[in-house]
């Protein structure tokens, strides 16, 4: 075929003079025709990227892992206090239920153990969060590409499903590390600090040696490995709305900010006058949009985190209580329903929202930081 097809990419809110390009690009003629009808813009040197290539998967995984680690480090002290409140730790339960209790709990932790106390369990957090965030963002990119190959498939249910499936995949592979992190944050007794092998290995041994839920004599080791998945069911139930709502809200607010009336204030157009650093990934406009200004990107991420937290918080409380159940219930395993009943008997309906104020204070900067760092690292890596 002698005819060369010049790449034309519609970018919302972008203005540029017509330019001639002699470089052919592997884009279908029908796609180019449809694009040109929307906005007649021609790229000088577009970079074509296969989103399902190994390079893209690795780069997006690195970007996601770094973004998740940065976000968790930012809010680690708040995370520890929230876990202590959620699990009804006897030393800190009197502080829960009030905004001032947050600062009193932080002050007490700092008085006992200094700054290290505020970050207790953070090493386990980082061991978990890097693969967790990496898997989550990689899965979302790949699942979204399959479910939404172009704009005609861009629907709310598909967006929610892509986010939910990404969250479920990531939590399945990293849940044992999350349980260890929660147990590290929950423990305040000094004998844990003196445990042989350090705090982390001490908790691993303690969880492994706890009485398993199911007695399987021939497979005792396998049964005890199940101890590291206590609370997994409510985690999955909570992850479906948590990840789904977060990604959906983030993309929805991006759409709003790129609307005709707001794009002049929110979209970074001036950095892409030559269009040479734009990338061609799929036929979906989601993969051809310009980045937002810093404040707009942070706002989108923060709002996504707040709505996701509100949707999934009761499941998170149940999960935390199940994870430390062997400590608070004399080693007895409680099912989801029994754990929920225990929470309701102790504190009523408000018991499912204990620590939610801290949760909001935590997730807004965490999600804002996570999405912002992820998008910026992707740009630096050229994807």
Automatic annotation (TrEMBL):
Topology versus the membrane: Multi-pass membrane protein
Coiled coil location: none
Solcar repeats: 55-146, 154-256, 292-380
Keywords: Membrane, Mitochondrion, Mitochondrion inner membrane, Repeat, Transmembrane, Transmembrane helix, Transport
Any one annotated GO CC term: mitochondrial inner membrane
One of the GO biological process terms: transmembrane transport
A Pfam family this chain is assigned to: Mito_carr
Keyword Transmembrane helix found: yes
Chief location: mitochondrion
Protein name, per record: BA75_01600T0
Protein's organism: Komagataella pastoris
Lineage start: Eukaryota, Fungi, Dikarya, Ascomycota, Saccharomycotina
């Amino acid at each position: 075929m002698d005819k060369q097809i010049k790449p034309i990419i519609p970018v919302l809110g972008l203005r540029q003079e017509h330019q001639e390009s002699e470089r052919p690009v592997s884009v279908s003629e029908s796609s180019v025709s449809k694009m040109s009808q929307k906005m007649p813009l021609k790229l000088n040197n577009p970079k074509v990227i296969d989103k399902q290539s190994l390079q893209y998967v690795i780069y997006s995984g690195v970007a996601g892992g770094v973004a998740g680690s940065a976000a968790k480090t930012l809010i680690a002290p708040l995370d520890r206090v929230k876990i202590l409140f959620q699990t009804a730790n006897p030393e800190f339960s009197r502080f829960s239920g009030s905004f001032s209790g947050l600062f009193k709990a932080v002050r007490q932790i700092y008085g006992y153990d200094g700054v290290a106390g505020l970050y207790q369990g953070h090493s386990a957090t980082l061991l978990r969060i890097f693969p967790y965030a990496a898997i989550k963002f990689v899965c979302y990119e790949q699942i979204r590409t399959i479910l939404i190959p172009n704009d005609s498939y861009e629907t709310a249910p598909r967006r929610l499903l892509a986010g939910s499936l990404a969250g479920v995949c990531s939590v399945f592979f990293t849940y044992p590390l999350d349980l260890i992190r929660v147990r590290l944050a929950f423990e305040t007794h000094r004998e844990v600090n003196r445990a042989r092998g350090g705090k982390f290995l001490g908790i691993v041994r303690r969880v492994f040696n706890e009485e398993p839920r199911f007695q399987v004599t021939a497979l005792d080791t396998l049964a005890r490995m199940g101890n590291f998945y206590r609370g997994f069911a409510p985690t999955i139930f909570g992850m479906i709305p948590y990840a789904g709502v977060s990604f959906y809200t983030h993309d929805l607010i991006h759409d709003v900010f790129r609307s005709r009336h707001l794009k002049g204030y929110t979209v970074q157009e001036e950095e892409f006058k030559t269009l040479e650093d734009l990338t061609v990934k799929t036929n979906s406009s989601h993969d051809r949009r310009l980045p937002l200004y810093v404040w707009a990107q942070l706002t989108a991420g923060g709002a996504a985190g707040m709505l996701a937290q509100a949707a999934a918080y009761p499941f998170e409380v149940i999960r935390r209580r199940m994870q430390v159940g062997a400590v608070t219930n004399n080693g007895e395993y409680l099912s989801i329903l029994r754990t929920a009943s225990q929470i309701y008997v102790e504190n009523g309906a408000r018991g499912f929202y204990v620590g939610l104020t801290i949760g909001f204070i935590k997730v807004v900067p965490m999600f804002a930081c996570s999405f912002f760092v992820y998008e910026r690292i992707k740009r630096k890596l050229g994807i």
